[in-house]
Amino acid sequence: MYFFKKIVSLLTTKSDMNKYLILGIGNIGDDYNNTRHNIGFDVLDELSSILNVNFESVKLAQRAESKFKGKKIILIKPNNYVNNSGKSLLYWRNKEKVDIKNILIICDDLNLHFGNIKIKSGGTSGGHNGLKDIEDFLGSPNYPRVRIGISNNNNNTSMTNYVLSKWTDSEQKNIKNIIQISTEVTFSFIQTGIERTMNFYNKKNFIDENL
């Protein structure tokens, strides 16, 4: 199955380098709003607000599109759960003919402390099932991603319960800023590329200690 998906992905027609596909990982349904696992959806919602576009229900996703610096931006929120993000990505990547280098995945990261954002051009899933599913469908781990830290070193809660829980009051004071920075990262990626974006934003903590 892995080999078949890889062949299908590679056999698509020539990519349009002026198109960018931004996918936020999250769970569908109101019960998951404002939960840690849905930070990817939250960033996509902020992007759509900045770009003044609305999401529409389409095949396998909520989709919006806009222009930025002469480039077409396609925003995708899979209409499934975190662990099943890959099918939606592959479908819209192939339909829109987006080069893998112009894909950006935005997700939570339990391995990063809250307030940290890490941009990578590729790599392992790091235990994130949504990224693992995307890797399986793309047939490659070499796609850009923004990983937003959600860990607070709380060892008294199971991992599943933790990622599906709401932000604490103290986290809520910072989450708006973290989402805003993540949108800046996205626009930087589109305008300047992954390398310059990594160099500028990585190794920074975005918590406002004065709050």
Task: Draw up the topology in text.
Blueprint: H1 2-10, E1 19-24, H2 39-51, E2 56-58, E3 61-68, E4 71-78, H3 86-96, E5 103-113, E6 117-120, H4 129-138, E7 145-151, H5 159-163, H6 169-192, H7 194-201
Parallel strand pairs: 1-4, 1-5, 5-7
Antiparallel strand pairs: 2-3, 3-4, 6-7
Helix pairs in contact: 2-6, 3-4, 6-7
* Secondary-structure element string: HEHEEEHEEHEHHH
Low-confidence stretches: none
Rounded to the nearest angstrom, the radius of gyration is 16 Å
Largest sheet data: 7 strands, mixed
Strand order of the largest sheet: 2-3-4-1-5-7-6
CATH class: Alpha Beta
Beta-strand content: 15-25%
* CATH homology superfamily: Peptidyl-tRNA hydrolase
Shape: globular
Number of helices: 7
**Can you tell me the number of structural domains?**
1
Structural class: alpha/beta
By DSSP, the count of extended strands is 7
Average pLDDT metric: 90
Helix fraction?
25-40%
Distance between the termini: 49 Å
Protein model, in words:
The protein has one domain: 3-Layer(aba) Sandwich (Rossmann fold), CATH 3.40.50. Helices cover 38% and strands 22% of the residues. It has helices at 2-10, 39-51, 86-96, 129-138, 159-163, 169-192, 194-201; strands at 19-24, 56-58, 61-68, 71-78, 103-113, 117-120, 145-151. Strands 2-3-4-1-5-7-6 form a 7-stranded mixed sheet, with helices on both faces. Helix 2 packs across helix 6. The longest helix has 24 residues, at 169-192. The protein is globular and about 50 Å long. The N and C termini lie far apart (49 Å).
